[in-house]
Amino acid sequence: MKHFIAKHSLPIRLTVFLTSLIFVVLLIVLLVETHPVNALPEYATLTGESCGVCHVNPGGGGPRTLRGLLWAARGKPVQLPALPPVLLAPDVKDSYELYRIACAGCHGTKGEGSSAMSLTGTGIHTTAVRSYLLKGIQPLGMPGFKGQLTDAQVDGLVNFVTILGDSTVPLPPDSYPLAPAQLQGKPGHAETESEGN
Question: Please, what are the domains in the chain?
Answer without folding.
Answer: 14-83 (no CATH), 87-171 (1.10.760.10)
